[in-house]
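Handout, page 2. Input:
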Amino acid sequence: MVLSLEPADAEPYVLVFSGKRVEGKTDSNGLLEVVIPTSVRVADLLLPEREMKFHLQIGDLEPANTTRGLQSRLTNLSLFMGNSNGDLDGTTRAEILHFQSANDIDPSGGHDEETTAALADMHGV
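Output:
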């Protein structure tokens, strides 16, 4: 399953981590920036207007050129709902194909250099 979310200007959010609750609104590009302690490993992001909740794993990202790194980045961008297990299985290939098609990359379903670079650029790491 692919979940597609368009960024929203001034979208209310709630970020919960370590018993702390931070409320705010996204910027004009739909982004949010919150400083959190380096010890935080998990957080929940709530988008009340969409009635959505995302469980975030923080600081646990493998390199973009690994299958698990690709799966994790797709998951963080809400483009992959499979298991980030490092296996290049049918679900992963289907989500890669979807990402490639949506980003004008030759849709091979493979984990190639162009796909890795585009995903790392979109993800920011």
